[in-house]
Amino acid sequence: MDQHILFLLAGLLEKPLISIEILPGGLQEWMPPASQDFPFVLEDGHLGVPQKILYKLYVAAASLYKEHISVSSVVLLANPAHQTALNTRKKSVARGSLDPSKELDLIALFIRGFKECGKQSIIWDHRRWIFRYQYEAIRPQTLAGWPTSEEASSFPMIPLDILEEECQLIKHACEIYPRNYHAWAHYHWILNVIVVVANRGPGPGGESVQDYHRFLRKEVTSLREWISLHVSDFSAVHLLCTLAVLDRSGPARLVEGIVDEIRKHAVDLVVSYPAHETLWLYLRSALALSAAEDVRTAVGSIGGRVPAAAVDKYISHLL
User: Fold this and answer.
1) How many helices (H) and strands (E) does the chain have?
2) In sequence order, what DSSP letters do the residues of 237-251 get, joined into one string?
3) Which residues have CB under 8 Å from 290's CB, separation 6+?
4) Is there a contact between 12 and 57 (Cβ–Cβ < 8 Å)?
5) pLDDT in tens, 136-160
């Protein structure tokens, strides 16, 4: 296919876009009036790329992206798991020829546009690399929960508003691709950043510990709502319980009362959906964080509402 079409698409991907979508079909199915963007569809910042055309362009792009960095975006649009193309873009960021903020924006558009991108572990690793490159590393410090000060200092000082946007992106990726383990793992990394930065002192944008209180409180509520709507998503359950553990990693209690909340939430869900094993694992995790008296109270509240054998199977060893 004409290289002009390839570089046309690469140029469109460099524009400030609102969304990117891969359209079914090829040239014949998308025959709009003649325009400078043909055979692509660009309307009010929304870019549509016919699938058959993209796959034909991929062959040419895969042989040219090392010489023309802009073409690597076409490679990733067709194949987001292309490790060498991602490494090439990292080198361009390090050389200063590729803006890290624009790179984060482009990858976010890819993740929102199609689920194949959001399920790739190397895409989320690429975002973490960009964050580490773009933002100052946290000074070495000793925190409970991290074996060494070097591990705690491996997180970058990311402004809170950027972290909020990243959490929204992760949830979108998990919505279009259910039980997205790699996206939830990235979410775990974001929460680590928040806890370490909060225990260090004022955030990079002047955020106070109270700002982090409010943010994490909102995330706890959001995760509880997510679990209620996705009762088989154990990654979300694990993340919420991990947040309770992370809360103990420093002198500031960022989310007061979280253990009590998730224990009650887990009991309510087990009673409502006793057939879901994920919810029993959720309850076990919540009870493992609780005091013995709270465990007995929680188990007593379940009695008579679900089969006794189920209770014995999953939580009797905690009593």
Assistant:
1) 16, 3
2) HHHHHHHHHHTTSSS
3) 259, 263, 298
4) no
5) 887 655 555 554 455 656 788 899 9
Please provide residue 137's backbone torsions phi and psi, each rounded to the nearest 5 degrees. -75, 145
pTM for the whole thing? 0.85
The helix/strand/coil state of 305 is coil
- The residue type found at 163 is L
- Measured torsion, CA atoms of residues 58, 62, 65, 67, in degrees rounded to the nearest 10: -130
The DSSP bridge partners found for residue 272 are none
Closest CA relative to residue 3, chosen from 41, 77, 56, 47: 56
What's the rounded Cα separation, in Å, for the pair 44 and 171? Answer: 25
The answer to whether residues 230 and 236 touch, using CB atoms and an 8 Å cutoff, is yes
DSSP state string for 14-60 = TS--SEEEEESS-TTT--PSP-TTTTSEEETTEEEEEHHHHHHHHHH
Instruction: Quick: pLDDT tens for 165-192.
Output: 999 999 999 999 888 999 999 998 998 8
Residue showing tokens 């070495």: 140
